[in-house]
Amino acid sequence: MRLENQIALITGAGRGIGRAIAEHYGREGARVVVADLTLESAQEAVDAIEKAGGTAMALAMDVTDEAAVDEGVATIVKTWGGLDIAVANAGIQHIDPLHKLAYADWRRVMNVHLDGAFLVTRAALKQMYVGGGGTMLYMGSVHSLEASPLKAPYVAAKHGMLGLCRAVAKEGAEHGVRSNIICPGFVRTPLVDKQIPEQAKELGLSEEDVISKVMLKNTVDGKFTTLEDVSEMAVHLAAFPSAALTGQSIVVSHGWHMQ
Ligand code: NAD
């Protein structure tokens, strides 16, 4: 087990990529905090982790709510005595061309990804600095490194998360904190399922063509990145033993993006 004795917080972990990471961390021996918008949305993942023999707790944490994030981390420390790994994963998508993009939609996407990642980072670092170190992980995207049309706020926010990750690597080093960002290609989750018909409408393509000619066009094998691909990388980065790996963006995209 690669994460024994580790206490891990994962935001947006009720479903999708966050849930896959939470379950994988549970199998690797970590005590897992499944945080999501409501307790109900987090509970199913907690049940799955416990059924597999792991230890988990559900936490209601809207990452855009400063008090909820601070109180959530305080609850973890009070309940389990510390925090070793924090994964800023919560995210949303919005599809629109820039010239039609409402300011409210721009702000909503930036708020969840970038403000949320900052609030989780600040609360986690305060604890990690007194606890002797830890690991910050960010769920970036290939869109942390390149752009696609119709996703301007998402692309800007994901680029911003890369900057935050690097800043944490610089500041956190002397406190034993490592910071890395995982940049997946398309993973079949509710977030992606929702945007297939939206992109088909905007681009005038069939849904099959959105998948093959837009989403998977530049992969080496025409395949979606899997939940397992991403959660395995999240385990690897959390378990990595030194600051040789810090401030890095790790692309998990079936060759869509090569850096
Ligand atoms: P998803 O929609 O399946 O899950 C997102 C989760 O985040 C949900 O459980 C939702 O309730 C939660 N969430 C949303 N807003 C929140 C908030 N304000 N506070 C707390 N939780 C909130 O999405 P996913 O595909 O699993 O995406 C997870 C992360 O991975 C996101 O940051 C996304 O940008 C990133 N990502 C996804 C893909 C992909 O192809 N699916 C690719 C690259 C990066």
Give me the oligomer status.
single chain
CATH topology: the name is Rossmann fold
Ligands in the model, by name, code or SMILES, are: nicotinamide-adenine-dinucleotide
How do the strands of the widest beta sheet line up side by side?
3-2-1-4-5-6-7
Please give the number of β-strands. Answer: 7
Protein name: 3-hydroxybutyrate dehydrogenase
Family: Belongs to the short-chain dehydrogenases/reductases (SDR) family.
InterPro entries: NAD(P)-bd_dom_sf, Sc_DH/Rdtase_CS, SDR, SDR_fam
Describe it:
This protein has helices at residues 16-27, 39-51, 66-80, 103-131, 152-172, 190-203, 207-215, 227-239; strands spanning 7-10, 31-36, 55-60, 85-88, 134-139, 177-184, 248-252. It has a single domain (7-185, 225-252), classed as Rossmann fold (3-Layer(aba) Sandwich). Helix 1 links the parallel strand 1 (7-10) and strand 2. The two termini are 31 Å apart. It is α/β, with parallel strands linked by helices and 259 residues long. Helix 1 (16-27) packs across helix 8 and helix 4 runs parallel beside helix 5. It has a 7-stranded parallel beta sheet, with helices on both faces. The structure holds nicotinamide-adenine-dinucleotide (NAD). Residues 11-12, 14-18, 36-37, 41, 61-64, 89-92, 112, 116, 139, 141, 184, 186-187, 189-192 line the site of nicotinamide-adenine-dinucleotide.
